């Protein structure tokens, strides 16, 4: 794996020259619009990058975007990878390894998720303060590469506390509804049953989704500070569940995206409320 990471990193560096990103961004389902805020200097299609996995979802673009966001050099994944697409955990998290090798000092992750908490309504935002991994797999299984991180990485604080505090302050200052909570990662691709939603809430979840946790585990393994935020696109706490379509999820995500973009932009720029 280390050789593949080095090979891919070398190729990307040959294409972007002396550009060294300070922050890495992973954009979730329906949340690719943040790219419009980036002063783009270079774009690379996943399909053209050696050893780089390609998103199989038609609504994910599959591009690495290099440029400046609020004056900060960033690399953004426009189109993330999911376990339910059939990739291994190591493939899903390969881009995080590469971004770290490219020089990023922190990782910012977004996703669309379902609310489990009756106080967290559809269309709102949730800053992730902790997670529960129910995906039944782990990207760190197998032989450990000491060059990448320790065999037994600590996960007592997987999400950077100061970034959480600052993000919530930014949200309050801009009258944005933004909660703080626990994210539960499941495999998908189906949405949950009523009994499953109840179970996930009972074990401590505030939102449920199909991504994020593998990338966060690998980021912690490599010593990267992480910030993650969810757009709550549906509700799983009602007594009578309403059927939810992908189109509805994408519509809610697009409507909430400007609020998420504002928080991420000011956070990455180092601004306080």
TrEMBL record:
This is Purine nucleoside phosphorylase. The gene is punA. Keywords: Glycosyltransferase, Transferase. GO terms for molecular function: purine-nucleoside phosphorylase activity. Pathway: Purine metabolism; purine nucleoside salvage. The purine nucleoside phosphorylases catalyze the phosphorolytic breakdown of the N-glycosidic bond in the beta-(deoxy)ribonucleoside molecules, with the formation of the corresponding free purine bases and pentose-1-phosphate. It comes from Mucilaginibacter gotjawali. Its EC number is 2.4.2.1. It is an enzyme of class 2 (transferase).
């Amino acid at each position: 794996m280390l050789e593949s990471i080095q090979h891919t990193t070398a190729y990307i560096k040959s294409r972007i020259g002396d550009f060294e990103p300070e922050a890495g961004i992973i954009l979730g389902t329906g949340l690719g619009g943040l790219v419009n805020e980036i002063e783009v200097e270079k774009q690379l299609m996943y399909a053209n990058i050696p050893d780089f996995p390609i998103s199989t979802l038609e609504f994910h673009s599959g591009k690495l975007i290099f440029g400046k966001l609020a004056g900060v050099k960033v690399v953004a994944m426009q189109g993330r990878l999911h376990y339910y697409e059939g990739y291994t955990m190591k493939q899903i998290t390969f881009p995080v390894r590469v971004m770290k090798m490219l020089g990023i000092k922190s990782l910012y992750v977004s996703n669309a998720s379902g609310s489990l908490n009756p106080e967290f309504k559809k269309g709102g935002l949730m800053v992730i303060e902790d997670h529960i991994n129910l995906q039944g797999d782990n990207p760190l299984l197998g032989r450990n590469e000491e060059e990448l991180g320790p065999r037994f990485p600590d996960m007592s604080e997987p999400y950077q506390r100061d970034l959480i505090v600052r993000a919530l302050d930014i949200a309050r200052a801009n009258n944005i509804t933004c909660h703080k909570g626990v994210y539960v990662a499941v495999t998908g691709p189906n949405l949950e049953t009523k009994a499953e939603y109840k179970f996930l809430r009972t074990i401590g979840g505030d939102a449920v989704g199909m991504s994020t946790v593998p990338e966060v585990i690998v980021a912690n393994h490599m010593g990267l500070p992480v910030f993650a935020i969810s757009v709550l696109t549906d509700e799983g706490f009602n007594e009578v569940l309403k059927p939810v379509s992908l189109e509805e999820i994408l519509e809610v995500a697009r409507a909430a995206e400007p609020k998420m973009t504002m928080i991420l932009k000011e956070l990455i720029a180092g601004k306080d409320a």
